[in-house]
TrEMBL record:
Assigned EC number: 3.6.5.4
Keyword Secreted part of the UniProt annotation: no
Database matches in CDD domains: SRP54_G
GO cellular component, one term: cytosol
Pfam family, one: SRP54
Protein name in the entry: signal-recognition-particle GTPase
Keywords: GTP-binding, Hydrolase, Nucleotide-binding, Ribonucleoprotein, RNA-binding, Signal recognition particle
Domain SRP54-type proteins GTP-binding: 278-291
GO molecular function: 7S RNA binding; endoplasmic reticulum signal peptide binding; GTP binding; GTPase activity
Enzymatic reactions: GTP + H2O = GDP + phosphate + H(+)
Superkingdom in the source lineage: Eukaryota
Family, as annotated: Belongs to the GTP-binding SRP family. SRP54 subfamily.
GO biological process, one term: SRP-dependent cotranslational protein targeting to membrane, translocation
Length: 453
C-alpha cells in the first residue's frame, strides 16, 4: 500500500534504536537523519520534515530525559502520529437534522467518486442521503454522478441545462431539506489547477447553501462540513494546492484518495499538515465500498507493519454477519482460535473487497496491493488449509502445528498446496491471537467500538 515503504523505513530506523546499547547524541543524530531520509523520499515536504525534526529535538533533549523514557515511543508519537493528527475535531453529522457536506478539490482528485462513496457509507447505515451535482464545468460530471448515485441507490439532484452551479446548489439543497434528508452532499466543480474562477464559485456555493439552510442564523458562513479531497498520487504539489484551498474556504476535513495505488503518499500527509484539518476517510479503490474511516493510531499501526485488526473486526461487525456477537465475546476473553479465523475469512469472502482487507492483515500488509483475484486466491488457500486440519488443530494451541513438521506436511498435502503456505498462515494467525490476548480485560466502548490496538 501507499506509505508502506515509508512505514517500513521508519520502522527500520526505530528498530535501530532498540538495538543500540545506549542512546547518546550520536545515536540520536543517526536516527533523526534516517527518519528525515525516509520522509523526504516518501514526498513529505521539506518544510514539514524540518518542523518534525525540530519537534523531535525539542522532545528529546538527552540531558533532560528522565530515566526509563521510551525514546522509540516518543519518536513514534512526535513523528508519525503528529504527521496525521490535527488540532481540529472532525464534524460528526447529527441524526434527524440537515447536514450539508460540501466537497472541494481539483479535477481528477477523485471528488465525484468520493461523494458517492460517502453517500453510500451513510445510506447503508440508515441515513437519508441526497447528492447534488454542481459541477457544471466538467463535461460528463452530471452523468457520472447520476450513474453512481443510481448504483448506490442514493437520491440525486442535478440540472443538465443549468450552467449556474449556485442555482443548482440552491435548488438541490432546498429540495432535499424540504424532504428532511439528513445528509446532503454537494459536489462542486474541479479545475485542472487552482484558479480564481474555481475559488469564487466555491465561495458562492458555500454562501448560498448556508443562507438556505440557516436563513435566520446570519453568523453561520459555511456548510456543516467542507471536505477537501486530495489525491495521494500528486506528490509534492499537494501542499501548495491544499494551502490555496485553505485560504479561500474553511477546509474542515480531508479525504485522501487512491491510497491503494503506488504513490508515495507523503505529499498527502503534507497537505493535511497545512490545512490542520483531520483526515476523516481514505479512498482505497475505485469501488463504491472502498472508503475507509480513518483513525490515526490504527493507520500508524498499519504503516509500521503491525496490521489493523481492530478495523477488520469492525468491518465484519458493520456487515452484520451472523456470529459477530459471539466473536466479540470470545475476543474479549482473550480467545482467538484457528477455527475463529477460518470463520472470519469465510465472512470476508462474503463481503468482497478482499484486497483492501488483506492490506490490514499483519504480515500481509507490507506486500504490494494485489488484484482482487489474487487476494481471493490467497484467502481461499488459507481456507482450504484450515479445512484440512483436525478439530484438535483448529481449536488447540498453534504450537501443535508449529512444532510438528509431520502435521504441517499432512495439512498441506490434504489442501493440495505448497508447504510454505502453512508458514504464511501461522504468520497471519499469530498477530490475531496476540491481539485477542491484549483485548482481554480491556473495556470495549459502550457503543461496541473496538479499542485501538
Ligand atoms: P474528480 O474529477 O475529482 O471528480 O475525480 P473522479 O471522481 O472522476 O475520479 C478520477 C479517477 O480516480 C476515476 O477514474 C476514479 O475511479 C479514480 N478514483 C477515485 N478514488 C479512487 C481511489 O480511492 N482509488 C483508486 N484506485 N482510484 C480512485
Amino acid at each position: 500500500m501507499v506509505l508502506a515503504e515509508l512505514g517500513s523505513s521508519l520502522a527500520n530506523a526505530l528498530t535501530k534504536i532498540n538495538r543500540a546499547s545506549k542512546i547518546d547524541e550520536k545515536t540520536l543524530q543517526i536516527l533523526i537523519s534516517d527518519i528525515e531520509q525516509a520522509l523526504l523520499s516518501a514526498d513529505v515536504s521539506t518544510k514539514l520534515v524540518e518542523r518534525l525534526k525540530a519537534n523531535i529535538r525539542e522532545k528529546l533533549r538527552l540531558s533532560e530525559l528522565p530515566a526509563g523514557v521510551d525514546v522509540k515511543r516518543v519518536i513514534e508519537k512526535v513523528e508519525i502520529t503528529n504527521l496525521l493528527d490535527s488540532k481540529r475535531k472532525a464534524y460528526i453529522p447529527k441524526r434527524g437534522k440537515t447536514n450539508v457536506i460540501m466537497f472541494v478539490g481539483l479535477q481528477g482528485s477523485g471528488k465525484t467518486t468520493t461523494c458517492t462513496k460517502l453517500g453510500y457509507y451513510y445510506r447503508v447505515r440508515g441515513w437519508k442521503v441526497g447528492l447534488v451535482c454542481c459541477d457544471t464545468f466538467r463535461a460528463g460530471a452530471f452523468d457520472q454522478l447520476e450513474q453512481n448515485a443510481t448504483k448506490a441507490r442514493i437520491n440525486f439532484y442535478g440540472d443538465r441545462n443549468e450552467v449556474d452551479p449556485v442555482k443548482i446548489a440552491l435548488e438541490g439543497v432546498k429540495r432535499f431539506k424540504e424532504k428532511k434528508f439528513e445528509i446532503i452532499i454537494v459536489d462542486t466543480s474541479g479545475r485542472h489547477k487552482q484558479e480564481e474562477s474555481l475559488f469564487e464559485e466555491m465561495e458562492m456555493i458555500s454562501h448560498a447553501v448556508v443562507c438556505l439552510v440557516y436563513p435566520l442564523h446570519q453568523k453561520k458562513k459555511k456548510p456543516n462540513d467542507t471536505i477537501l479531497v486530495v489525491d495521494s498520487t500528486n506528490g509534492q504539489q499537494l501542499e501548495a494546492q491544499a494551502e490555496a484551498f485553505r485560504k479561500r474556504v474553511d477546509v474542515a476535513s480531508v479525504i485522501i484518495t487512491k491510497l491503494d495505488g503506488h504513490a508515495k503518499g507523503g505529499g498527502a500527509l503534507s497537505a493535511v499538515a497545512v490545512t490542520q484539518a483531520p483526515i476523516i476517510f481514505i479512498g482505497v479503490g475505485e469501488h463504491i465500498n472502498e472508503l475507509q474511516k480513518f483513525d490515526t493510531q490504527r493507520f500508524v499501526n498499519r504503516i509500521l507493519g503491525r496490521g489493523d485488526i481492530a478495523t477488520i473486526v469492525e468491518e465484519l461487525k458493520e456487515h452484520k454477519l451472523d456470529d459477530q456477537k459471539e466473536l466479540m465475546e470470545k475476543i474479549q476473553k482473550g480467545i482467538f482460535t484457528l477455527r475463529m479465523m477460518r470463520d472470519q475469512f469465510q465472512n470476508i469472502l462474503k463481503i468482497g473487497s478482499f484486497s483492501s482487507i488483506m492490506q490490514m492483515i499483519p504480515g500481509l500488509n507490507n506486500l504490494p496491493k494485489e488484484s482482487e483475484d489474487a487476494s481471493q486466491q490467497r484467502l481461499q488457500n488459507f481456507l482450504v488449509l484450515m479445512d484440512s486440519m483436525t478439530a484438535e488443530e483448529l481449536d488447540g494451541d498453534i504450537a501443535l502445528i508449529e512444532t510438528s513438521p509431520s502435521r504441517q506436511r499432512r495439512i498441506c498435502r490434504g489442501a493440495g498446496v505448497h508447504v510454505n503456505f502453512i508458514f504464511e498462515l501461522i504468520m497471519v494467525y499469530k498477530p490475531f491471537a496476540g491481539f485477542a490476548k491484549n483485548m482481554k480485560n480491556m473495556p470495549f466502548a459502550k457503543n461496541g467500538e473496538m479499542p485501538k490496538n
